[in-house]
Amino acid sequence: MNKELDFLQALFSGTDQPVEVFPFLIQLIMTVILSLLIGYFYIKYGNSLSNRKALSRVLVLVSLTTMIIITIVKGSLALSLGLVGALSIVRFRTAIKEPEELAYFFIVISIGLGIGAGQVLVTIIGTLFLSIVIVLINRQKTTEVLQNLIIRFRQEKDNDIEKAIELLKKYASELELRRLDEDEQISEVSFAVRFSSPTQLITAKKELQAVFPGISFSFLEII
């Protein structure tokens, strides 16, 4: 009986420095709160073309995962060395296309690292400071939400993209080129755009269709 109890105790306490359950739960909660805060600022102030609400949920998971890993390995030299070996074979198959996304990933990873290492107060102060910086950087951002306009057309001449941009400038009150993808047959151009009225959008669409037969449109919210 004693052997079974010793086995269970070793199984749940670990071989090096056991993790106390209650502080660990508090750290989990703090990690969720701080990463949700960063996710909120990403949704509100981010400029990514991807679905920011979906990515904000991923940020929470990344932060939690980082915190759990650091909590587990910080008291064990063997686990720390094993983590280095495991990470050396990990590869990202999908590139992060927006530098802004990478910045937010680094923020939530740092939250997980700080909380997992037991530096809770420093992590809270640092996260709040970063939040203030994000607000200050974006304080001049207009409250009106820009829209995504994606056009796809067959490029027959070298200046077709410039022609499409000049045409859109006639009707859009604000136009910003975000992405350009080209292959041998089809060009896809993404804009962050604002029209003063739906009529301006419809007029621009009709004129583009007249110039580029077979052109396709996607017009959607950024968030």
Structure notes:
The chain has 223 residues and is α+β, with helices and mostly antiparallel strands. The chain has 2 domains: 16-137, no CATH class; 147-221, 2-Layer Sandwich (Alpha-Beta Plaits), CATH 3.30.70.2690. Helices cover 58% and strands 16% of the residues. It is built from 8 helices and 4 strands. The chain has a 4-stranded antiparallel β-sheet with strand order 2-3-1-4.
Topology (elements, then pairings):
Layout: H1 2-13, H2 21-45, H3 52-73, H4 77-87, H5 99-116, H6 120-137, E1 147-154, H7 160-169, E2 172-182, E3 186-195, H8 198-211, E4 216-221
Antiparallel strand pairs: 1-3, 1-4, 2-3
Helix pairs in contact: 2-3, 2-5, 2-6, 3-5, 5-6
Give a quick summary of the entry.
By secondary structure, the protein is an alpha+beta fold. It is built from eight helices and four strands, in the order H-H-H-H-H-H-E-H-E-E-H-E.
Any key phrases for this structure?
8 helices; elongated; Alpha-Beta Plaits; 58% helix; 223 residues; 16% strand; four-stranded antiparallel sheet; alpha+beta
Note the beta-strand portion. Answer: 15-25%
Spatial extent as radius of gyration: 25 Å
What is the percent of helical residues? 55-70%
Q: Label the overall shape.
A: elongated
Mean pLDDT, to the nearest integer, reads 76
What class, by secondary structure content? Answer: alpha+beta
Distance between the termini: 59 Å
What's the helix-strand series? HHHHHHEHEEHE
Q: How many β-strands, per DSSP?
A: 4
Q: How is the largest sheet built, in terms of strand order?
A: 2-3-1-4
Ranges where pLDDT stays below 50 over 5 or more residues in a row are none
* Major pleated sheet: 4 strands, antiparallel
| Whole-number total of structural domains | 2
Total helical segments:
8
